[in-house]
Amino acid sequence: MDSRQIAQSRPWLAVGQEIADLLGRIDADAFARLVQAFDDPDQRWFFSGQGRSGLVAQMGAMRFMHLGRTVHFVGEASAPSIRRGDALLIVSGSGETPVSTGFARIAKAEGAKVVTLTHKPAGTLAGIADVTLHVPVGESKQFGGSLFEQSCLILLDSVVLGLAKQLPDAHRLMLQRHTNLQ
C-alpha cells in the first residue's frame, strides 16, 4: 500500500509516519544542548508560545512541573517576573511572532537564558536564543501546521523522559504532585 492509500484508509498511520520522519531529522547534538539547558533542577523556567504553539508550551510546562521543577507560563496571573538566572522556553514555528520575540528580548535584557523550538533556525527568535532546536518541518498533509506542534510536544516529552530517568522514583513523585496524594 503506498502512502496515499495509507493516508486515505488509515490517516492515523499517515500522521504517525510524518512525525516519525520529522523526528528522524532532528539534530542529535542540538537536542543534547536542549536537554543540557535543563540541567539545573533549581532554575526557574518560564514557558511561552502563541496560538497552538502556546498550548504545546503549556503542556510542556506541566510535564516539567510534574518533575518537581519550578515552572510558570508567561501571561498567567500568578507568573512572577522573569529575572537573572531564570530561563524562558518559547515554542514558535515561524520564529517571528512579535509577542514571542518581544518576550525573548525582555528575558535577555533581564539576564535570563532563552531557549526556543522553531522551524526557522535563521529567524529572529533563533538569533536571540541561547539554545535553538530546529524542528525541520517540511511538506505535510496535515491540516494547518499540526506537524510542528505535535513534534514539539514529543520533543519536550523526550526531554522530560530523560530527566525523569535521572530521578529515583520519578513516576511515584509525579503522581504525588499530580494528585496531591501523600
Automatic annotation (TrEMBL):
PANTHER family per record: 3-HEXULOSE-6-PHOSPHATE ISOMERASE
Organismal lineage: Bacteria, Pseudomonadati, Pseudomonadota, Alphaproteobacteria, Hyphomicrobiales
UniProt cross-references to Gene3D superfamilies, sorted A to Z: Glucose-6-phosphate isomerase like protein, domain 1
InterPro entries associated with the record: PHI/rmpB, SIS_dom, SIS_dom_sf
Recorded GO MF terms: carbohydrate derivative binding; isomerase activity
Annotated protein name in UniProt: Putative sugar phosphate isomerase involved in capsule formation
Family membership: Belongs to the SIS family. PHI subfamily.
Keywords: Isomerase
BP GO terms, sorted: carbohydrate derivative metabolic process
Ranges of residues in domain SIS: 34-169
